[in-house]
Design goal:
This protein is an alpha/beta fold. Helix content is about 45%, strand content about 15%. The strands form three sheets. Strands 8-7-6-9-10-12-11 form a seven-stranded mixed β-sheet, sandwiched between helices. Strands 3-5-4 form a three-stranded antiparallel β-sheet. Helix 7 runs antiparallel to helix 10 and helix 9 crosses helix 10.
């Protein structure tokens, strides 16, 4: 039997894997971004290939290729059978541009702005309590001033939105609502998902003029021009069009509570009796001990915005304080949940 102590040394009571996992995450997960940038997934969409075949196609040597492919396989994005690498269902679903659920544009956004997620970038964000994306400052102002930044950001957000957009409309009965206002709706992914899932629903996307122009292209792709319209507006300053369903996705986490409170109050005042608010977010648990995805998302917000993630309890309290009733927290897709309430 192994001894618990040696002279002057106590054997650790737990192993060291959690501390190693921090290091391995720093080096391991970028392998997926590199595989994406090198177009490994697009290559394997044409068929399974051996390591030498992949090296030849990508014009890289065996040692780096093997490191990337092994990481991608260990993380479940590739399989290896009889010496041939192939796509797994998750990579087929999310990492091929031909898929409607393509996640790659969001990965592009992360690669293009990788300095935000470096240790130096996040350290500066923590010490200054200020976002660091695009060199620091207000990302939304940067989007207004630089159309290419806006285009890439909107494509990235569309990437992460289409799949959950097809799920949340099914988690409860929205059949009595007729008009959805998608506030800060970006590409219109959630309006598109809601329209596809709720056949009678009309939707209106509320966002800056440049964003609405991009949203129109996505609306046309799904042939929903008759049911989804756009309204060019500053959501903070301008009047909101009439609707009986207000929807916010990945919006509240951009702002501190004071601004979230403002949006909640503006929603309440704009809705008629019986109108519903929906907040679609990755939520902390109520005691803020996790989950890890929400904690990591909050760290991402440190680098990108002035905001943070919220718990379902915090958002519910905000809705209740404003006057919403019948407040519910419901699981949606993946890490996402919705917090919803009615105006009495």
């Amino acid at each position: 039997m192994a001894q618990d102590t040696l002279p002057g040394i106590q054997i650790p009571k737990v192993d060291d894997r959690p501390v190693w996992d921090v290091v391995f995450a720093i080096y391991g997960y970028p392998a997926l971004l590199l595989a994406h940038r090198l177009k490994v997934f697009a290559l394997l969409a044409k068929g399974a290939r051996t390591l030498p075949e992949i090296c030849e196609a990508l014009n890289i040597k065996q040692r780096p290729a093997e490191a990337i492919l092994t990481a991608a396989t260990a993380l479940g994005f590739l399989s290896l059978q009889a010496g041939r690498y192939a796509l797994t269902p998750v990579s087929e679903e999310y990492l091929l541009e031909s898929s409607p659920n393509y996640f790659g544009f969001f990965w592009d956004l992360m690669i293009d702005n990788y300095q935000v997620s470096t240790f130096a970038g996040l350290e500066k964000a923590i010490l200054t309590d200020a976002p660091q994306a695009y060199g620091g400052g207000d990302i939304f102002k940067s989007h207004e001033e630089q159309i290419e930044l806006l285009r890439r950001f909107t494509c990235g957000m569309h990437s992460i939105s289409m799949t959950p957009a097809l799920v949340w409309p099914q988690v409860m009965d929205f059949s009595r609502h007729k008009m959805m206002l998608d506030i800060g709706g970006g590409s219109g992914a959630h309006s598109i998902g809601a329209a596809l899932r709720i056949p009678h629903l009309q939707a209106r996307i509320l966002d800056f003029p440049q964003v609405c122009e991009m949203a129109q292209n996505y609306i046309v792709q799904y042939s929903l021009q008759e049911r989804i319209k756009t309204s060019e507006a500053n959501i903070w300053q301008d009047h909101w069009p009439a609707a009986d369903l207000h929807f916010f996705s990945n919006m509240f986490h951009d702002w501190l509570p004071e601004k979230c409170h403002f949006l909640t109050a503006k929603s309440f005042n704009s809705l008629e009796s019986g109108g519903r608010i929906i907040i679609h977010e990755m939520l902390y648990n109520d005691d803020k001990t996790g989950p890890f995805a929400s904690a990591a998302f909050s760290m991402m917000m440190m680098g990108w915005t002035e905001g943070k993630q919220y718990s379902g309890q915090e958002l519910s309290a905000m809705l209740k304080e404003i006057g919403f009733v019948e407040i519910q927290i419901l699981k949606a897709f993946g890490y996402y949940s919705i917090v919803t309430g009615l105006k009495p």
